[in-house]
């Protein structure tokens, strides 16, 4: 399901950015980088919360 959603959103963007590579390359990669950072923050927050729950 997650792969399907990612495919639906990223494949058109990827193809579009491939056509207009010089214009959109930087924006495209910064968007992916920001999403990656966002998910890593969520994962880290969940792990920290689990550790805090174990301490209490």
Overview features:
56 residues, mainly alpha, 2 helices, 0% strand
Decide which structural class fits the backbone: mainly alpha
Low-confidence stretches: none
| SS summary, helix count | 2
Distance between the termini: 36 Å
Q: What gross morphology would you assign?
A: elongated
Give the helices and strands as they follow along the chain.
Answer: HH
Proportion of residues in helical segments: over 70%
Mean pLDDT over all positions: 76
List the helices and strands and how they pair.
Layout: H1 2-19, H2 21-55
Helix pairs in contact: 1-2
Brief overview:
This protein is an all-alpha fold. The chain has helices at residues 2-19, 21-55.
Describe the structure.
With 56 residues, this protein is mainly α. The chain has one domain. The chain is 95% helix and 0% strand. The chain has helices spanning 2-19, 21-55. Helix 1 (2-19) packs antiparallel against helix 2. It is elongated and about 55 Å long. The model has no long low-confidence stretch (mean pLDDT 76).
């Amino acid at each position: 399901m997650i792969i399907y959603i990612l495919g639906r959103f990223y494949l058109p963007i990827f193809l579009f950015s491939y056509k207009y590579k010089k214009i959109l390359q930087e924006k495209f990669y910064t968007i992916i980088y920001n999403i990656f950072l966002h998910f890593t923050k969520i994962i880290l927050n969940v792990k920290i919360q689990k550790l805090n729950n174990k301490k209490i």
